Amino acid sequence: MKKFFLVVLSAAPFFVFAQTAVSDTSAIDEILIKENRLQIPFKKTTRNIEILSKEEIAKLPARSINEVLSFLNGVDVRQRGPFGTQADVSVDGGSFDQTLILLNGVKISDPQTGHHSMNIPIPLDAIERIEVLRGPAARIYGINALTGAINIITKDVDSNSIIAHAYAGTSFKDVEPEEGRSGIYFGNGYQLGGTLKKENQTHQLYASHEFSNGQRYNSASKNTKLYYEGNVDLNELNKISSSVGYIYNDFGANGYYAAPNDKEAQEIVETLLATISSTHQLSPNFYLSPRISNRYNEDDYRYIRTNLDLYRSLHYNNVFSMELNSRYETGFGDFGLGIESRFENIASNNMGAHDRKNYGAYTEFRTDKFQNLLLNVGAYINYNTQYGWQVFPGIDLGYMLSDDWKLMANVGSSQRIPTFTDLYIQQSSIGNPDLVSENAWQAESAISYSKNNFQVQAGYFYRDISDFIDWINTVGTTYQSMNVGNNKIHGINTSFKYKFSTNDYTHYSINLGYNYLKPSVVERTGDFISRYVAENLKHQAILNLSFQYKNLLLSTANRYNERASSTEYFLSDFRAGYTFSNFHVYADVQNIFDVTYIESGAVPMPGIWTNIGVKYNLRGL
């Protein structure tokens, strides 16, 4: 923690110098938050929303979406393996399954286990921005958005281009002797892509491959990603969009799930995503948006990679969804209405064959027609074939103290239904088919200031989850999933973001955040060891700084995490980059202080790691 405060103090000149700075030209106020039916300007949002733009992503010393998310306030990334192998992501102290993951508004969370929700087949270079909606989001997105939602949005195509990216890195440490080989730990990757823009259509295609021999015994990984997205304007009133993505992920799973006995474990995960949607303006005030999507996933877990007849688990699951979203604009405010259906099934040699159906309908109303008051109110009605009927109401209020200062308050409910693993797994951990769904109420208040490229916010929330699902272990037993009672938590979050320029050539940016989480009286039954609660974050502090002079970029990203178990670690990363012509070269040093730390399972993450890369972008073909 002392190292983190030293880094904060070193940033003091940025704050002092900023008093006479010239503002950057790109303003966060201009961003539209893309929900399923209502698009809200960032300045008029009534929720705690964190945004990471493509410019900010490009400055971070990160190689994967998982690593990028770890630099966002309130987001807890627990990686089981480096290089984007596998990670659990949660928001504001929730478990990983309580955060909904979306790609361009399409739900891609994993119903099998939740551990593969971050199997996302797009490279960082294809991302326009990442939106993190904190707090209950069931009113907006339906089930499984219990503590929040993360929406990853791809770039719009504005020209013809060719994109190439190659990189390699190493720890400069020798592989372990039992590997039976010599050399050092290393990793490399490449990405190829292109965009095509015509008068009434756009297309983008990306392919990437990464390989690493790991950072310890049996931690090697390789993954291949393919992604296509196309948009066609039939006319001014009707548009069609489609996308297809595929990822193949093969990694050594030493210590992932059953340490210390899974030293020879291996896992292969394949995910296929497909979406087709359209938007239609049926009148000057009425918009209709149907969408069909499918997520297919294969998970091959090999407990002993050299003996596939022993404890091998094969899981095949599919999610098919249909949505109809609509928006009606009036002089008094905007209405959102819609319905959706979701069909989930799994076939597994370990869990058997199961399926369930989910049907939802929502209504929402938003207005800014009251003097200084912003109102967003609605409800989501849900029916699940396992858990019956439920209603998730919510209301968001904002009050403009001035053009730049805003007070916000919201109250809402949310739910998470158990994964198939929670219910049916029969391995080293035991599922529980009698589980009921988790339900939560959360209240939040905040004050924010936003103008051009300056944003500051501070807030407090209280959340009460009933029938909280945890994996518990009593003395002499294996872990089993159970509804263990209420999980109550108080939270404070603060953030400060500022981008400024001292002249036409020199630009600075600062992102500083601190989050504190405190469980209140937790009502539980029995004495047991918890798998999830003890690993929740208690303190989180983030400081990202960047300096750009003409074509030179210098940036540092720092984060301090302390968990409820008192485990703490401070990580500091650095990037130096230079752009000339159509090329950008960079060098990263991650974990500068060579900290030994574990985020999840029994997997020590890499120590100091050096990475170099080059990007090529030819535009205007």
Helix content: under 10%
For the record, the count of structural domains works out to 1
**CATH H-tier superfamily:** TonB-dependent receptor, beta-barrel domain
Provide the low-confidence segments as ranges: 5-26
- CATH-level-2 architecture: Beta Barrel
Q: Quick one: how many beta strands? A: 36
Helix count from the secondary structure assignment: 6
Shape: globular
Taking the alpha carbons of the first and last residues, their distance comes to 50 Å
Q: Class, according to the CATH hierarchy?
A: Mainly Beta
Structural class: mainly beta
Mean pLDDT: 88
Q: Please give the radius of gyration in angstroms.
A: 24 Å
CATH topology: Maltoporin, Chain A
- Biggest β-sheet: count, sense, barrel? 22 strands, antiparallel, barrel
Strand fraction equals: over 45%
Description of the molecule:
This protein is mostly beta strands and about 625 residues long. Helix content is about 5%, strand content about 60%. The protein has a 22-stranded antiparallel barrel. A five-stranded mixed beta sheet has the order 4-9-10-7-8. A four-stranded mixed beta sheet has the order 24-28-27-31. It is globular. The N and C termini lie far apart (about 50 Å). The model is unreliable at about 5-25 (pLDDT under 50). Its main location: membrane. Keywords: Cell outer membrane, Membrane, Receptor, Signal, TonB box, Transmembrane, Transmembrane beta strand, Transport.
